[in-house]
């Protein structure tokens, strides 16, 4: 049976393309239909229409308000047709909102799998993402074969909201690493060390990381077309600070990266790849 897919931004487009490449028939819905009209997919007019054609529907949206809109809009997913269907939500949600999504879907007899994605466009196209799932064990086990088509590493944390919290924790590493690598790159250039050579040395030295491997060429070329945007990492670090506040726990190392990415948004660069934070440190 066809797989439904809602949300074809940079990451969603890559994941849906991967599903199609491994032989899945994909039907899509996007709030801005004009953005997907030339991608070659069958296009549903509403999310509800996907439920009539698909047993499993992926959602890959920017945030919880976008997910809530897909659920509650006229022709949305929260309807009688949801019964027996599975929603795999790849969105990085608010850790409290995601609990409401579990309840809303399950109440209508559907299956909700909280399934945030670790990784961006390049690994998505190759089926090499990491995913962490939370929800009912049987729902996870039934969904695992399709998850294996998009992900290299798959983890399961049964308690709802755990996967979302783990994604936010992971993105503390991601944002902190990127800010540090960007500053190191700019500092090396100010020392008259060629940028490409500095990145090569960092790549076998203290900067060795998946982040540097993924962003080295972007930093060299200063090509900041988005794979993972400044707005997205800023949103995630803000949610992480909210999580720490709810736990009455200080969060020292998130504060500066979060404000640096906020600065990029303020400069009108929210839609650029988050590696473009390098521009804050580079001498003009």
UniProtKB/TrEMBL annotation:
Pfam families on file: NAD_binding_11 (PF14833), NAD_binding_2 (PF03446)
Keyword NAD: yes
SUPFAM superfamilies hit by this protein: 6-phosphogluconate dehydrogenase C-terminal domain-like (SSF48179), NAD(P)-binding Rossmann-fold domains (SSF51735)
Location of the active site: 167
Residue ranges occupied by any 6-phosphogluconate dehydrogenase NADP-binding domain in the UniProt entry: 2-156
3-hydroxyisobutyrate dehydrogenase-like NAD-binding domain segment(s): 163-280
Keywords: NAD, Oxidoreductase
EC number: 1.1.1.60
Protein known as: 2-hydroxy-3-oxopropionate reductase
GO molecular function: 2-hydroxy-3-oxopropionate reductase activity; NAD binding; NADP binding
